[in-house]
Amino acid sequence: MIEVTNEAIAKLEEHFEGQDRAPIRVYAASGGCSGPMLGLALDEVKAGDASTEIQGFTFIAEEKLLEVVGDVNIHANEHGFQVASQNPLPGGGCDCNSGCGGCCS
């Protein structure tokens, strides 16, 4: 399930003012030393996607991704959007041999 705060809806309404509302994809983005994280991008619905309508916006994500991460919450503040999930994405974190610097000192 995807949940979106009122603040995030307001930012989306501001962004799309005067233009068509493209579907918004929740996806796993690489995160460097911190591992993958969830992000947002404008996209089209594809085979294997789950789609939900929330306050006039279409949110999409690969069904397999949602099976792994569970519920997704989209928040917004003055710095932009934050996408959090019920379960962490696999592959996160830093190990002392990765060379990411500073995480094991």
Automatic annotation (TrEMBL):
The protein's name: Heme biosynthesis protein HemY
Domain of life (superkingdom): Bacteria
Domain Core per the UniProt entry, residue ranges: 2-97
InterPro entries, alphabetized: ATAP_core_dom, HesB-like_dom_sf
Any matching Pfam family: Fe-S_biosyn
Transmembrane segments: none
Signal sequence range: none
